[in-house]
Amino acid sequence: MYKISLGVLCLVLAIILGNAMVVTGSGDADEMCVPMGTIMLEPLPGVEAKRTPVDFHHPTHFGFSCQTCHHKWIELDKPIAGCTTSGCHDVAEAPKPADTGSGDKELAARYYKTAFHNLCIGCHKEMQIQNKALELSGRVLKENLPNTGPTGCVQCHLKEE
Ligand code: HEC
Ligand code: HEC
Ligand code: HEC
After folding, report:
1. What residue owns the CA closest to ligand 2's atom 12?
2. Which of 40, 62, 130, 143 is deepest in the core (most CB within 10 A)?
3. What is the pLDDT of residues 46-72, one digit of tens each?
């Protein structure tokens, strides 16, 4: 049914919507290639990085729906756009409080760092809170709690060797 090449899984979107899922390596415009390994998340161009880039293992997260992260992927016959696509999380500099203080949440979320931190740390933290509650309730043994992702800075931004 599918072919994996160079760590990506390519799907022809027009056909996903039909009955069969067909995969090619032909590079058509309506084809979407899903990274099946680690994606290196880096700052936007022009940002002087204070931290190391983040190795994000994409398939580890496939237990969640794609739209958990790709929240704009509504027209499923169009390929998924990257997070920092123009008009999305494309702001490289932290907006000044004066600009967001008036309640411009949209601008705040366009700052790519805020967007990533809210999404990534937000979910990991939420799961840790849920695990704590489950543990305290005594309904689930500690060793059976689901894995959560990291929330500590150097767990995502590994220290430089
Ligand atoms: C769950 C993973 C995760 C955790 C935990 C995390 N970050 Fe990030 N951070 C990211 C991602 C993803 C980006 C966007 C890609 C990039 O810029 O490297 C980012 C971007 C950044 C940036 C902007 C880019 C740069 O290098 O200057 C800074 C600064 C930063 N994080 C600092 C922190 C600090 C400080 C902490 C701890 C309080 C932290 N991060 C915790 C994932 C994480
Ligand atoms: C936990 C969050 C998360 C989940 C869940 C997730 N992805 Fe992703 N995905 C990402 C991130 C982050 C990137 C890197 C985007 C970037 O570089 O801007 C990415 C990249 C992609 C890309 C490449 C986009 C591009 O820029 O060309 C595709 C395609 C993709 N994902 C498909 C999927 C599919 C299909 C699913 C569901 C099976 C899925 N993803 C689930 C976070 C996620
Ligand atoms: C909806 C919840 C959710 C979101 C959003 C999410 N994660 Fe995770 N993440 C998890 C869970 C659950 C695990 C533990 C998976 C496991 O070990 O089985 C995890 C594990 C990780 C790990 C360590 C384990 C590994 O092998 O990769 C890293 C690093 C990580 N996440 C980074 C990120 C980054 C960076 C983002 C944002 C682009 C992100 N996560 C978004 C739920 C999430």
Report:
1. 83
2. 130
3. 999 999 999 999 999 999 999 999 999
32 lines ligand 2 (CB under 6 A): yes
- 3 to 10, 28, 40, 59, 147: CA distances (angstroms): 7, 15, 23, 16, 30
**Residue 141 carries which side chain, given as an amino acid letter?**
L
pLDDT in tens, 136-151: 999 999 999 999 999 9
Ligand 1: distance of its center to the CA of 3 in Å?
34
Question: What is the residue range of 130's domain?
Answer: 37-60+83-156
Answer whether 69 contacts ligand 2 (Cβ < 6 A). Answer: yes
Q: How far apart are CA 70 and CA 88, in angstroms?
A: 11
Q: Rounded distance, CA 132 to CA 155, Å?
A: 20
Question: Is the residue at 20 inside a domain?
Answer: no
147 lines ligand 3 (CB under 6 A): yes
